[in-house]
Amino acid sequence: MTGKDGMITQVDDIGWEKHLAARARRMESSVIRELLKLTAQPDMISFAGGLPAPDFFPIREVEEACHYVLQNQGRTALQYSPTEGFEPLKEWLADTMSRYGIWVEPDNILMVNGSQQALDLIGKLFVDPGTRILCSRPTYLGAIQAWDAYEADYQTVPMDDQGMIIEGLPEALDKSQHRPRFVYVLPNFHNPAGTTLTLERRKQLVDIARRYDLVIIEDDPYGELRFDEEDITPIFRLAPERTIYLSTFSKTLAPGFRLAWVVAPKPIISRLVQAKQGADLNTGAFVQMVAYDICERGILRQHVRRLRGVYRSRRDAMVDALHEHMPQGVSWTVPQGGLFLWVRTSDQIDTRDFMQKSIAAKVAYVPGFAFYPGGKGGEHSMRMNFSYSNEETINEGIHRLGMAMKKELAGG
Amino acid sequence: MTGKDGMITQVDDIGWEKHLAARARRMESSVIRELLKLTAQPDMISFAGGLPAPDFFPIREVEEACHYVLQNQGRTALQYSPTEGFEPLKEWLADTMSRYGIWVEPDNILMVNGSQQALDLIGKLFVDPGTRILCSRPTYLGAIQAWDAYEADYQTVPMDDQGMIIEGLPEALDKSQHRPRFVYVLPNFHNPAGTTLTLERRKQLVDIARRYDLVIIEDDPYGELRFDEEDITPIFRLAPERTIYLSTFSKTLAPGFRLAWVVAPKPIISRLVQAKQGADLNTGAFVQMVAYDICERGILRQHVRRLRGVYRSRRDAMVDALHEHMPQGVSWTVPQGGLFLWVRTSDQIDTRDFMQKSIAAKVAYVPGFAFYPGGKGGEHSMRMNFSYSNEETINEGIHRLGMAMKKELAGG
Fold first, then answer.
1. Could you report the per-residue pLDDT of B343-379, keeping only the tens digit for each?
2. Residues 6+ apart with CB under 8 A from A264
3. Are B362 and B403 a contacting pair, CB within 8 Å?
4. Are B90 and B289 in contact (CB under 8 A)?
5. Is the Cβ pair B254, A108 closer than 8 Å?
6. ipTM of the complex
7. Hey, what domains does chain A have and what are their CATH numbers?
8. Does A269 touch chain B (CB under 8 A)?
9. pLDDT > 90? residue B39
10. Taking CB atoms and an 8 Å cutoff, what residues of chain B touch A275?
11. B255 neighbourhood in chain A, CB within 8 Å
């Protein structure tokens, strides 16, 4: 109803639920998003988000690039642009990806609004109600959220410290009455598990995908943020005929641009382009051209080198602090790169219930259940982000968490 | 297959079609997008796109805003941000919309990546396979494209020069076995028809929506670009309890920002936020903050005033040129604002077939069929954009089109 000044003070509820599509009933607000709101309190140390370190954003370089793009190509930057993406940026990406084994043409690339949009468009193209998806448990919660909206079903595979366990997979597929349509993999510095899939397992997975005619979704947001050892051949390189590869500028340049890309065989890029036309017409030309300027001047490469050093040192700080402050029986992964590690608590702690006490102690994490389709599993696990906070804060946060856990184990 | 240097020279087709979801089979590339590619030839005069005039983009002001935002809030601008949108921008919008009768709070607003994303999210929330949508014929092709992807069905209503014909609608609804879930309306300067729905008809439509329990989608991208007469009360104002209102910066500021917004009752905003989390997490903070700076400094208001003058004069140029160059029997709408007018040719011309001859004569339009669900209808109509080209070019283009039509009518 509108009040006398026209302001809507109270609007009748027309019973919106009955107007909604069936899929809308399965959508839920992301656990992470809701948690982030809780953790916005002052003095909170949050390991919950997946945020890059804002102190290291290349702000001055972005400003120079904005200036250059607007001065020289302002009329193109502010106009509608092709759905496929800004061609010079796609050429730069094709060239750059060849260094880590992905040899493609610009026409194999589609620019999207963050990798989350790639996950959504893949859902739109490949997921019917009840379509089965093969993935690790745990797996990236954003993927679950994207595909739940298309009423997906999941077949999950356990993980160890080398990533998804491939042994036993053919038997599980043979036994399952309902064959998955695709397999979703995060091969490098898995979110949330922090593990890296070995080359041997990548090859085994490709063999299985070929045998069972599975499409492979290779989600690689952190691949360039490797601290230790050597790059491992991407799955795309091993099976270019059936792999859709996702990468992003969110972790290397800045998430505020919402800029990521998909690499796939051309018939699939055409389909993704159609889906993106209906979803949002095109990714903004302005941010693409600014990102291109930064890439092309060699700034991104330098910047990534710097970030690797910063994040390595923060990972080390978190691992050292875990050694120092955690009670007996707690273990964790030591990722070779990326933003996250995965902590396994003792069986006495349910990380979902314990969240409240942790927040009271002014430290936050994401409880493991958020990374399991349907929320079943991960009761004794938590995801910890080490990219956002500096070493001192990390140590203090882990100290608080360890204290709270010890108190809990001693009976609260 | 990978060649000896690792480049993917030829990739086996694994038979992707069989992996696709049912809905993907209904997706087609936008006719407009494909046409735009054809019309990229030199010397072509294109009335086909829906592009704002690039000569008038406020490039210097955008540059100043980028500078200000990065200098003062760079760490926020480049980081992840709330799905709901940048709060100060939503406050500014709530305040500004109150001038034309939409009195809401910032929590009634969701920022999206262009209105096309709003159409997509509405499809995701409200469209099951076979869900019926009530809309005018013709209607906006981007809406058809968004909702075809969710396997919508359409019930269409004819239009006259005052917009959708409401008389007869209750009878049509009573007769139809399958009740529509929502009605889609473009009340101001309709795309493609150029018509404006009268206040009387808006009220009748609201009565019908209440009687038949229909949600109303009010798509208003051009409302601020009114050249003549007075603003007409938005439908949202008449039925705030059941209307979802869409507007955008693409036509007033710049499409390259990909920035638009949805106004709706709060329970629907919450649902849209959930859908957007799965679709792309959030709209870029950077472009939202830059847009806010431009709005807040009063630049947008000045700029829109200027655009109204420019586009009015271009509309006049097109109407004058049509009078001068069109053969007998051709008619057109004279829109009170916006970017488009709608031409009805004589029955001897099929605008889809004629397209080829028109392109040969170096002038392009969008054939009417593109604006009819299923492509059935509009054989003797075409959409003409008058915002992109200057007066001289408009006159030359209409001259070419008139010549080509006269030649066609004289037997080719």
1. 999 999 999 999 989 999 999 999 999 999 988 899 9
2. A108, A110, A243, A244, A245, A272
3. no
4. no
5. no
6. 0.95
7. 19-57+302-409 (3.90.1150.10), 59-299 (3.40.640.10)
8. no
9. no
10. 24, 27, 149
11. 78-80
